Amino acid sequence: GKKNYKADGHPSGGVGVPGGGAVGGGGGGAVKTRKPDNTAFKQQRLPAWQPILTAGTVLPAFFIIGLIFIPIGIGIFVTSNNIREYEIDYTGTEPSSPCNKCLNVSWDSTPPCTCTINFTLEHSFESNVFMYYGLSNFYQNHRRYVKSRDDSQLNGDNSSLLNPSKECEPYRTNEDKPIAPCGAIANSMFNDTLELYRIDNDTRTPITLIKKGIAWWTDKNVKFRNPTGDGNNLTALFQGTTKPVNWPKPVYMLDSEPDNNGFINEDFIVWMRTAALPTFRKLYRLIERKNNLQPTLQAGKYSLDIAYNYPVHSFDGRKRMILSTISWMGGKNPFLGIAYITVGSICFFLGVVLLIIHHKYGNRNTSADIPN
Amino acid sequence: REPPPGAEAYIPQRFPDNRIVSSKVPIFSFIHLDKSAEVILCLIIDTPTSPVTSGLPLLFVITVTAIKQGYEDWLRHKADNAINHCPVHFIQHGKLVRKQSRKLRVGDIVMVKEDEKFPCDLIFLSSSRGDGTCFVTTTSLDGESSQKTYYAVQDTKAFHNEQEIDALHATIECEQPQPDLYKIKEMTEYNTLVNCALLNLLRCAIFSKTSCLISGVAIYTGMETKMALNYQSKSQKRSAVEKSMNVFLVVYLCILVSKALINTILKYVWQSEPFRDEPWYNQKTEPERKRNLFLQAFTDFLAFMVLFNYIIPVSMYVTVEMQKFLGSYFITWDEEMFDEDTGEGPLVNTSDLNEELGQIEYVFTDKTGTLTENNMEFVECCIEGHVYVPDVICNGQVLHDGTGIDMIDSSPGGSGKEREELFFRALCLCHTVQVKDDDSVDGLKKNDFSRKSCIYISSSPDEVALVEGIQRLGYTYLRLKDNHMEILNRENNIEKFELLEVLSFDSVRRRMSVIVKSSTGDIFLFCKGADSSIFPRVKEGKIDQVRARVERNAVEGLRTLCVAYKKLTAEEYSNVQKLLQSAKLALQDRDKKLAEVYEKIETDFILLGATAVEDRLQEKAADTIEALQKAGIKVWVLTGDKMETAAATCYACKLFRRNTQLLELTTKKIEEQSLHDVLFDLRKTVLRDNGSLTRDTFSGLSTDMQDYGLIIDGAALSLIMKTRQDGSSSNYRDRFLEICRNCSAVLCCRMAPLQKAQIVKLIKLSKEHPITLAIGDGANDVSMILEAHVGIGVIGKEGRQAARNSDYAIPKFKHLKKMLLVHGHFYYVRISELVQYFFYKNVCFIFPQFLYQFFCGFSQQTLYDTAYLTLYNICFTSLPILLYSLMEQHISAETLKREPSLYRDVAKNALLRWRVFIYWTFLGVFDAVVFFFGAYLLLDNTVVTSNGQVITPYNIFFFQLALDTHYWTWINHFVIWGSLLFYIVFSLLWGGIIWPFLNYQRMYYVFMQMLSSGPAWLGIILLITVSLLPDVLKKVLCRQLWPTATERIQTKHQCLSVEQSTIFMLSQTSSSLSF
């Protein structure tokens, strides 16, 4: 019963309205005040532009969209095709796979199970190459998983460091010590080590993999911070905390370089940005082009050395290594180009259909009598 | 003020103080319950959204509602306070004391000066005028501008000073307060029983006009005054749009529940594999593991409900309410609906029904005062068959002065002369007209009554016309003084008649009488009334001649009254007096008893003659009715007038045309045949023709088609309605309805007020449930105004009662055209678009969420960030649609007025049919699927992280709205692009800063990363194009192949300005590109 009101703004002989009391031409003064203003807004006569969608007006738009989209689509498609991408599944579910022996590896197996996969690149990779690892069937977007982190701890807040958020349960404490970094996401950090070698006449030349610059600048410099305190000794700063259960080493021993250690380790930051879909890839390393004369990765034989630590078989997961160059539009994505071409063609086709309809029925309608 | 001695069973009654409280506490309706429940759920169970996310929109909704209601309340408070604090003079302990009005108590004695308002209902004790009378105006109560005379209670009217009045010791016995303004039944006990009638009761809010002091005792105060009781809100009316809105809401609720159910079931199916339920990387906590499975499932179900609840557009109710409230101002602001003559504009008493004005199928209109001017002109009188015309107006000049009488027939003989004089005296005496008592004029020429100087005032314009007409025939009514009526006869002599009784007019009896005593001591009863109520009571007189003349006049559309008299002997009179006295003093059923007594008294008349008064048609009445009929609205005229007069009016206002075949369902006909046969015959006539013709020519109003007009009178109607008990009754009613449906116009004459309402109800409850509108100006129309879906009052001459009880009030009947065809049409289009859009936008928003559950292990993970969930409905999307729903004009107002047939395009709730609703829902689902899978495929391996997809679905709403807007004013531009800009700025801010109050920073820099990536832009453009494509295509194809009348007109206008639209499309694409 909320819809019960009188428009009291307009006196209607309601409570104590004196107007019109006099006999005869009473309320003469009230006439002026009650007369509504003749403004364009109040009379609903604001100048306006009144577009109407008709075949005649939409036709050119369809043709224009068609003409614009098809070239764009072709452009994108060509660009995407020029992007080199190579993908290896190293899960090892097939018995023939070299990594099959590591399939049932557990977290704490020492020394780590290693395997090597050889592969051949048919085409050379000209520009900078991005090396990704990909996981399938890994629900990084599960609600329980997504919220199991403490952003203020990761931001270097000292109180959160020792008293992590409840959201981190059951990865909040271990043996009565707070876990740093806490939560399921950090605990399950990807810890396979991938190394790439070029095989040239049976000699293995390691390829330099750059581990910095893979995270967003803002994440590395603003969002993630190590705890602050006296000195720069991370070991001391993380005093009183314990490592995540599944990690072999504590967080302050992730890397030897101080600006890539602790919470600001880039591998860690990349992992902490959770993926939206259960199949995802994350940037692992960069391979920079050395000089202008040689491509970054020549066509030829390569081998991938894997320190297989990350178990995925238990949940039917897959692990991949992807090598890819990028262009102005990012990684390889043939779909975008195809979609543009398709939509452009549909628009063009519809334009033609509309043209026919317009010519066949158009005259009938414009001449048709409008009932008075 | 004290209990009477000896009254043992006296129960002290609590009387309220004189505070008027019309404000009320805001009450929140059920729709908020949904949200409140959600907030509570969020607090008790583990839900995907935080309590803040769910609570904020609720808080917003409540705040807006509260502000709106608070504002209205504040206005009422202000008005209340003004009244409650105005000073009042009391008499206390023999002294005059000034106090605030709200301190007044029942039993206090109040003094009121000239031009003061009575603070509460008072019993008039005395006035400083010697004769114990006072004059008041009741304009603010019932709109009647005449001055009324009230009389002090006989026993107290001699009191003059405060001491005397203070010494008064009396008990007043009165009934419990009741709202009827014109009914009062109470008695005063003061030594002896004293009759205290209506005329002693001075009601709150009326103005004193007497130049003297009035004292009175308060009997009803505060909320018990007649005035306050009349404020009580009427029964709620709900519009058809609101009903369909609620139905859609139920559908969405079902969708919501089924979605949650599906997801819950799938979740448990999916989770049956333990590695999915609890993979090593995502372990449950101990308490979670131990939880009972069914409890867990139920919690999951609730969590899904919370997640998907955004599909129920909570903010829609607020927006709709705002739209209605603000939109109603456009009606009051409309200059064209302002009447210069009366200085009145349209009034909106409720804004709930704006859109209902665009859905009207039946209009029930009153005749007098609504279709006609109610500006009466005396045309002629007929005395015993001789016709008298007062003066012939020719070229605007009065040829004959008042004294001359044209005798069309032969001059009357000797006895005729006597009857003639009696007739004129009867007309001079039998009325309730008052003479405006102008003191200054009175003082100057006390004995020199100029014939033209008198101004007559009466609540009935017929009476004024009659008295004025008689004045031109030589008899002038001068005044009522000391219960003596003075008339100036043709010889310029003043005749005095003592007024003994007035048997006042009522619409059931349809007559009034006075009993007067001439100076010679003869007692006459003069009666005037409708012919049907006079003729049966006449025992002698030239009935046939008079009847012939009356019928002739009635055909010409004149209002006729018959005049009759009877002479009473002193003995008879004392009988009459006794009867009246006992009836008047009755505490219960006084009205009924009075009516019985009147019935007894008003018999055995001698017929004198008849009068004819012309009531001109209102300006543009015919034009309006024609437009309404073209708009597919059936117009029924319901009048208390007689058949011939009413039919003539109907012809004049083109309700009936020359080729209309009239079907009569009248008492006369029923007397000849049985009701059953009449109905059967009529039905046969109507259906024979219509079966072959009407069905297929519905859209156009073809002139060659035979149309029927039905005339039914009150008696016949009551026969149809009455036989309720036996089974055949509903049969009659159905048959009657069937006949009515096939008639283009229906005239119901001789209707009592209640019958009018009955007719409206009959149509309202018939099986198509048409939307009805009743329009009228008088108190007799109130019942039908209240009964109809929309009640419109004409602010007319018969007082303000109709306007007060109506939903909308307009100054003239002609304004109905703009009200329905323009405002109604606009409001309907606006609100239906608003409702559909709201459902669309929420489906579009939340359906991806549903799809996402399939990709996140049914874990209730939200696709959007909390901030977007919270603000989506409140900030990002509500303003453009609100503005759209206020400003949209799909076609210009002039065109709508010129082409009434466009009204048919929106008839029968056309824009909210299931087809349209399903279309919008599917459009929403389509867009959601396009966006979800588009983002899934296009943005797959780039920067998408969880919550990364916020930007894409969002933009579409603006473009969809932009597509539907036909009327782009700068305000629309500003709001649509402004909201988009706000969204972008908000996103930049939200993602650009680490907000210290948040315990997660998931959105940090996501938006910027998104904007900086090329494919994201390309993807957004593509997705927007794809999602707009089907709607554009559908619109264009429908317009091209199956255009509605509206669209044809739009196209026609379009031909004149083709260039404009190409610009639109270009800018449409360019704006797509830029966002």
UniProtKB/TrEMBL annotation, chain A:
Spans annotated as Disordered: 1-30
Please classify the protein's predominant subcellular localization into one broad category: membrane
Keyword line? Cell membrane, Cytoplasmic vesicle, Disulfide bond, Glycoprotein, Golgi apparatus, Lipid transport, Membrane, Transmembrane, Transmembrane helix, Transport
What is the official name of this protein in its record? Cell cycle control protein
Which positions make up the signal peptide?
none
Give me the Gene Ontology terms describing cellular component: apical plasma membrane; endoplasmic reticulum; Golgi apparatus; transport vesicle membrane
Membrane topology, from the record: Multi-pass membrane protein
Record family assignment: Belongs to the CDC50/LEM3 family.
Pfam families in the record: CDC50
* TM spans (from-to): 52-78, 335-357
Species: Malurus cyaneus samueli
Compartments (UniProt record): Apical cell membrane; Cytoplasmic vesicle, Secretory vesicle membrane; Golgi apparatus; Membrane
UniProtKB/TrEMBL annotation, chain B:
Gene Ontology cellular component list: early endosome; endoplasmic reticulum membrane; plasma membrane; recycling endosome
- Reaction(s) catalysed by this chain's protein: a 1,2-diacyl-sn-glycero-3-phospho-L-serine(out) + ATP + H2O = a 1,2-diacyl-sn-glycero-3-phospho-L-serine(in) + ADP + phosphate + H(+); ATP + H2O + phospholipidSide 1 = ADP + phosphate + phospholipidSide 2; a 1,2-diacyl-sn-glycero-3-phosphoethanolamine(out) + ATP + H2O = a 1,2-diacyl-sn-glycero-3-phosphoethanolamine(in) + ADP + phosphate + H(+)
UniProt domain P-type ATPase C-terminal: residue ranges: 803-1044
Q: Where does ATP bind?
A: D366, K367, T368, E463, F505, K528, R559, T639, G640, D641, R750, K756, N780, D781
P-type ATPase A domain location is 88-148
Catalytic residues, per the record, are D366 (4-aspartylphosphate intermediate)
Report the cofactors: Mg(2+)
Signal sequence segment: none
Do the record's keywords include Transport? yes
Q: Name one GO biological process term.
A: positive regulation of myotube differentiation
**Compartment(s) where it occurs, according to its Swiss-Prot or TrEMBL record:** Cell membrane; Early endosome; Endoplasmic reticulum membrane; Membrane
Description of how the protein assembles with itself and partners: Component of a P4-ATPase flippase complex which consists of a catalytic alpha subunit ATP11A and an accessory beta subunit TMEM30A.
The record's family statement is: Belongs to the cation transport ATPase (P-type) (TC 3.A.3) family. Type IV subfamily.
Protein's UniProt name: Phospholipid-transporting ATPase
Q: Which organism is it from?
A: Malurus cyaneus samueli
